[in-house]
């Protein structure tokens, strides 16, 4: 059984994961409109992945006797300046999400909720991977800068990355 405090915190995380899905969906659209198919596919896949993160939490809350809530979401921006800025935004977003997961883990410890703590370990590992992936892409794009040819090759690389790892 979840304590009220843990239930509220998990519902906040559900909202954040849903908003993450919207942010990446908006990035997918922005990239697609500019003809960058690879980046768009990567962002569509990432958006689906965030929805999966949200659903996993959602089902857990109900299974543990809480009530999973669907909240109003903040709208993401519809344009992102440049690819470099967009991937910086993605990286910063993931760092922020990791911090929220850590805060959530702290709450489960103060509440002595070891079952939820155990469940959240999956998210702790997932955030390590997500941050590493975002950092890796950001390093590449920083090397390319605004070079059009470089961006074209980068788009192809990201497309391959998306097809190889469906679970980005
Ligand atoms: Fe849900 O991991 Fe990214 O935000």
Task: Name the features.
168 residues; 5 helices; Ferritin; 79% helix; binds hydroxy diiron-OXO moiety; single chain
Description:
- This protein is mainly α and 168 residues long.
- The protein has one domain (4-69, 79-165): Ferritin (Up-down Bundle), CATH 1.20.1260.10.
- It is 79% helix and 0% strand.
- It contains five helices and no strands.
- The longest helix has 31 residues, at 114-144.
- The chain starts with a helix and ends with a helix.
- The mean pLDDT is 94.
- Bound molecules: hydroxy diiron-OXO moiety (OFO).
- Residues 17, 20, 50, 53, 94, 97, 130 line the site of hydroxy diiron-OXO moiety.
CATH topology label: Ferritin
Q: Could you list the spans in which at least 5 consecutive residues all have pLDDT below 50?
A: none
Helical percent range?
A: over 70%
Through-space gap between termini: 32 Å
Number of domains: 1
| Beta-strand fraction estimate | under 5%
Shape call? elongated
Task: Write down the Rg.
Answer: 17 Å
Write the H/E string, N to C.
HHHHH
Count of strand segments: 0
* CATH homologous superfamily caption: Ferritin, core subunit, four-helix bundle
CATH class: Mainly Alpha
By secondary-structure content and strand pairing, the structural class works out as mainly alpha
CATH architecture: Up-down Bundle
Mean pLDDT: 94
Main β-sheet, in a few words? none
The set of bound ligands, ions and cofactors reads: hydroxy diiron-OXO moiety
Query: What is the number of helices?
Result: 5
């Amino acid at each position: 059984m979840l304590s009220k405090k843990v239930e509220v915190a998990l519902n906040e995380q559900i909202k954040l994961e849903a908003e993450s899905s919207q942010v990446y969906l908006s990035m997918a659209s922005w990239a697609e409109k500019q003809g960058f198919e690879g980046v768009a596919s990567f962002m569509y896949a990432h958006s689906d992945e965030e929805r999966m993160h949200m659903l996993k939490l959602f089902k857990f809350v109900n299974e543990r006797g809480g009530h999973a809530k669907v909240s109003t979401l903040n709208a993401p921006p519809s344009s992102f300046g440049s690819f470099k800025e967009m991937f910086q935004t993605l990286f910063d977003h993931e760092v922020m999400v990791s911090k929220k997961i850590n805060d959530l883990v702290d709450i489960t410890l103060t509440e002595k909720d070891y079952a939820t703590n155990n469940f959240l370990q999956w998210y702790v590992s997932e955030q390590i991977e997500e941050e590493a992936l975002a950092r890796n892409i950001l390093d590449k794009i920083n090397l390319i800068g605004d070079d059009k040819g470089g961006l074209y090759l980068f788009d192809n690389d990201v497309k391959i990355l998306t097809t190889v790892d469906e679970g980005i």
